[in-house]
Amino acid sequence: MGEVTIQNVRISADHYINGERVASARTFADISPIDQSPLGHIAAGGAEEIEAAVAAARQAFPEWAALGPEGRGVYLRHLADIIESRVEDLAIVETTDNGSLLEASRLRVMKRGAHNIRYFAEFAETLKGAEWDSQPANAHNRVVYQPAGVAALITPWNAPFMLSTWKVGPALAAGNTVVLKPPEWAPLTCSLLADFTAEAGLPPGVFNVIQGIGEAAGAALVAHPGVDRVSFTGSVETAKKIGAAAAQNLTPVSFELGGKSPLIVFADADLDLALRNMLEQYDNAGQVCLAGTRLLIEESVAGELLERMMAEASQLRLGDPRDPQTQVGPLIHPQHLQRVDGFVRRALQEGARLVYGGRVSPALGGLYYEPTLFVDPPSGSEILQKEVFGPVLTWQTFRDEAEAIALANSTEYGLAATLFTCDETRAQRVAEAVGAGLVWVNCFYVRDLAQPFGGAKKSGIGREGGMWSFDFYCEIKNITHRSNTFG
Predict the structure, then answer these.
(1) Are the C-beta atoms of 30 and 4 separated by less than 8 Å?
(2) Is residue 484 part of a domain?
(3) How many domains does the chain contain in total?
(4) Is the pTM of this model over 0.85?
(5) Preceding peptide of 136 cis, ω within 30°
(6) What values do phi and psi take at 264, rounded to 5?
(7) In Å, how far are 153, 264, 270, 332 from 401, measured between CA atoms?
(8) How far is Cα 29 from Cα 72, in angstroms, rounded to an integer?
(9) Which contiguous run of DSSP H or E holds residue 383?
């Protein structure tokens, strides 16, 4: 049995199938982005392990579904309580594994995992389908939500625990059983989640975890005919492959994909508020799908705001994410650093003007990449069109509202948008005109689990959150009967 230990927290490196830990002959290395030290070797699953996990999930499904929302809620509330009791352990493990800021993990991110589980458990208990009479057919209609079956969940490395619970919560609350595929660059907190489900008493097979590389474990999972739903968060290119594989079985998919989101600042905005939020786009070293990486600033205030942005960005503290003073941590992996730096090199070649950053920190080295800003890249250039997923922002100016909207809508993505203005009418007008699944006005990253969440254009398929999660994780059935036909 493989194991990883981080500050006295013991984490299994093996799969979790049908209530038991299962090793594999193959393994892959897990390294810490903080110092690139090896954390351990993780079981690398493939078709054989996926077959066992899906079979276990299918066997466990009828009993789990039959419990009903209230019966499942007992287990899920216990699970949420366990997560809350282990926030400190989760925070240090995830920070070590993916380089996210420890203070953020401890104070917000891990607690959100418990909230995700509890919220969806409670929502499921209130889920009532519509009822109505059809005239002149003299019939009555009733809509019911029934579990879909086995849900395959694939989560990313930038917030693996929280984003796993965002999927696991509604999937289990709806009555499905789950096979979770964690990210290979940060798998450890998902392994802990398996232990928590066992401690909460979830029956064997209800929740399964298969570690592994996407091309092996992930590909086998999404193509399996025993899977009834596939939910994936990640890149557009990977989603295309998953969609093609799932289509062979007509398996419904939900995709939350990349972003190249605009952050629009009008001249009448609270510029202090706007600047604070602009700097926040470097959070988690820019490894946030929702980040407003394209700064669009009205010309009349652009000069002043750029000077302030440069001064404030130079004060951002880059360093060890375990240090509470650190504001920007490392990138996740050497391969990802090469990808981010490649975008920066090509932007320079295309004529974008670099005003700060653009390199690995000379003081820290390793995976620590300086916060970076390009001003006025050429229209249509790669740095304006493709998701970098690193601490790299671009700066463009606009003359009027129409140009701001045109620039905001000039990419193939449409995950989120952020805008700052003190004109309420303009805010409503621009928010409706921008092509995005989520628009923040005079704020950033305000999330309510009742909200629909998902992207427009190539930023995703479908919506999750609140009722929308259950629309995906359930089969929605309409039952019609003739009125006055029962004795």
Answers:
(1) yes
(2) no
(3) 2
(4) yes
(5) yes
(6) -105, 130
(7) 40, 10, 17, 37
(8) 36
(9) helix 382-385
Q: What is the pLDDT of residue 137?
A: 80
Domain that holds residue 125: 3-257+459-478
Based on the fold, state whether residues 290 and 423 are members of the same structural domain.
yes
Q: What is the DSSP letter of 377?
A: P
Q: Do residues 270 and 215 share a domain?
A: no
**CATH of residue 301:** 3.40.309.10
Residue 132 counted as domain residue:
yes
Write out the catalytic residue numbers.
Answer: 256, 289
Q: How far is Cα 4 from Cα 423, in angstroms, rounded to an integer?
A: 53
55 and 193, same domain (yes or no): yes
- What is the token pair recorded at 193? 């989640």
Which positions ≥6 away from 379 have C-beta within 8 Å? none
Asked if residue 450 is part of any domain, the answer here is no
What is the pLDDT at residue 484? 76
In angstroms, rounded to a whole number, what is the distance separating the alpha carbons of residues 122 and 228?
23
Whether 401 and 472 share a structural domain? no
- Cα of first residue to Cα of last residue in the chain, in angstroms, is 62
- Residue located via tokens 């706007």: 274
pLDDT tens per residue, range 281-305:
999 999 999 999 999 999 999 999 9
d(CA 228, CA 169): 17
Q: Which bin fits 212, alpha (ψ -120 to 50), beta or left (φ > 0)? A: left
Q: Above 70 in pLDDT, residue 487? A: no
Q: How confident is the model at residue 485 (pLDDT cuts 50, 70, 90)?
A: confident
Place of tokens 């320079």: 348
Look at the chain and count its residues.
487
Burial letters for 248-287: b for 16+ Cβ neighbours within 10 Å, e otherwise?
Answer: eeebbbbbbbbbbbbbbbbeebebeebbebbbbbbbbbbb
Query: Do residues 253 and 314 both lie within one domain?
Result: no
**Model confidence over 162-181: pLDDT tens digits?**
999 999 999 999 999 999 99
